[in-house]
Amino acid sequence: MSRPAILFVCNAGPDVGGGHVMRSLTLAEALTSAGADCAFLARPAVEAVLEVFAPGTPRSMASEPFDAVVFDHYDLSAPDHRALARGRPTLVIDDLANRPLEADLVLDAGPARLAQDYAGLTPPGAILLLGPNHAPVRPAFPALREAALARRAAAGSVKRILVSLGLTDVGGITGRVVDLLLSRPGEVALDVVLGSGAPSLPRLRAVTDPRLNLHIDTQDMPRLTLEADLAVGAGGSTSWERCILALPTLTLVLADNQVAAATALQAAGASPCLTVGTPDFDTAFKDEIDRLMADQGLRAALSTASAKVCDGGGADRVAAAFLARIAGT
């Protein structure tokens, strides 16, 4: 087999965001660089993300012909995997360990994930690629790691806060957080990242506060992450990007699938976390931001612990493992 053809089957939409597609794009780029040809199964919500962030990515309207399949879709389980893959090598990207998976390889980047969590859920012999060092992260992030570590070591005051709570802005959480941050006195700049269809966007565009900087459908996340002194971020796959660049972060849990990873990062001393759905969220958020802004030693400790979480080489590791399975080695 000269260049294996790999199909990506992903989920996306207002409720789940674009994170599945974004991390799959990173893995597809690593597979392509390593000698494969990748395409995404074209569904409207997936197409919408690809059009903004990777318009040149090949699409497919059908699951044939391909040599292997990558699934990143929580609503699909073993029967769906078997029906689509039809015996071809299969990689499932997962965070839940809550359903049977028909997979030759399972990628779960959760810091607290253990092999026993998948006992009885995968076929005998399935390879488990577990932990943040398997997380697909764009090469642009590890490329800035040295500069980021030097910046964190300089340990200045907080001048820029990065707000990154998902492109789809589930429930308008971005606007709510921006309101809380702008209610604080001071001159700290806010770099707010969101998608062009985000519910908060029309209202935020009308805000005239000079501290607010909107970054819509930005492709410049590595620079924004490097230049920030503090972040408010969702507990999804962007957590690994912030860890690689050792950015002190208050993690917000926006969905059930983010609970385990956010809790593990907090237990490791890498990031405090808050659950958005709790009744006292606004008060707890203000208190936590005040604490992080005031305590340079705390930010330094979070930065040091974050940098130990992962190194950014996950996409290449996973690509090598999957191509070896496809080749039968």
Automatic annotation (TrEMBL):
One of its GO terms (molecular function) is hydrolase activity. It comes from the Bacteria. Keywords: Hydrolase. InterPro entries: PseG. Coiled coil: none annotated. The active site is at H20 (proton acceptor). This is UDP-2,4-diacetamido-2,4, 6-trideoxy-beta-L-altropyranose hydrolase. Substrate binds at R138, E241.
